[in-house]
Amino acid sequence: MTSISVNSTFVVWLQYFLALIFVSFAAATDFHGVVFDVRSKLTSNERSVISRLKAHDSYRHFYYPLATGVDISVGGSGRPNSLGLYYTKIGIGTPSKEYYVQVDTGSDITWINGIQCQECLKKGYRGMDLTPYDQNASFTGKPVTCHDQICKDINKVNTVHGCTANASCLYHVSYGDGSESSGYMVKDVIQYNSVSGDMETRPENANVSFGCGTIQSGNLNSQDDAFDGILGFGNTNASVISQLASSGKVKKMFAHCLKNGGGIFAIGHVIKPKVNSAHLIPNEIHYTINVTGIAVGAEFLNLSIDSNGTVKRKAIIDSGTTLVYLPKVIYTPLVDKIVSRKSLMGSIVYHDSYTCIEFDGSVDDEFPVVTFHFENSLSSNVYPHDYLFSYGGLKCLGWQMNDMDPSIRDKIVLGDLILSNKLVLYDLENQTIGWAEYNCSSNITLKDDITGGTYLVSAHNLSSAFSLINSRFIRFLVLISVLIIHAI
Questions:
Q1: Which pLDDT value is given to residue 79?
Q2: Among 33, 104, 463, 466, who pairs with 201 as Cys (CB 3.0-4.6 Å)?
Q3: Do 118 and 204 fall within a single domain?
Q4: Distance (Å, whole) CA 445 – CA 370
């Protein structure tokens, strides 16, 4: 019995050693860029269910941080709910398991449902299999304590209140619809696709801290909407992009080009297409820039003075929001100018909080283009076919009055309605954000700032190489174990 125990221990340590070799092998490559193959939850038909669109956005922005255990206050407001727009697949752990996560620039923390979660679903969106994370099943998984820097970053303090020796770092997020996610923080290897050449990727990995959810409630447990978790690309030190950058894995730059059906989400220096950019406003929780003007056709609106006494309006850029939300003093005249044309008189109807028009012609011929102007000559055209949604025989406006959380009610919230079919570049090294109208089914070009090399990237050419390598690695590991056990 003693001999068997020793040999079994030896096998476990050998497996651990081989796992470390695998992780080191996957990591020992130069960085050219990271690409996520993002997909859209919405089809053109699903977008017509307008009664659910505002509910989706309201849930995201009515956010209240709660304290639990060691008084953790979690940043971020995104979650996968009834109309979470874009999701991707990543690998976590050693050996790796695959997880479907919503990609969200409005969320700071990344979290995955944990194996301890009794209420969490086994099946999610469109019947996809959901995979609970098990730290003990990963050779590289380890707990995060309340003394670790990531816990301080989440809590936005230098010392976490009530933190004791070796105590876990807990997180607890509550959303406006009553849904909640809570659990504890862990650190493990996340695997993703790194650009290795034109239209080619290879497996890479990095150690990232994320939440392991043990309790999920409310709409988070709706089978029609559920994913394994969230991949947070928000504007704090706790987000994935900040963690990767602080470890030296990447530059703090990323971009997305989103369209109906999916698109590209890339980390790295995008040099094509060229974009014009504006500076981000410092010390804002979300990615925020100043709006200097809004034109309906050729006629500019009066932005009016906001509660801070300025004629500039702050605008939050959020890929996880569906519509565009405007303060009342902007919303009312904008809608009036759109629907005041003589040909539309008498055809206005209201559905829920939407202004709708009885119209069956060409929307681009009849309705005006709305243009948002920002600092540094950055602008964005929103075309009628983008801001009008079909509902039965009606065309309904995607503009909404901002009646969200009072802390952002004076701000404009720019969601997918204005961000889709554009290459949006977040240059956090220089604290700018910009975009250009672009065909998101085509290629973008990333530059390796170390070698000077450039590489074409397309969402249609992404590799699932890390899955193949991991499956081969697992078979190799099992074979070695069997041979050793047989030998002893």
A1: 26
A2: 463
A3: yes
A4: 29
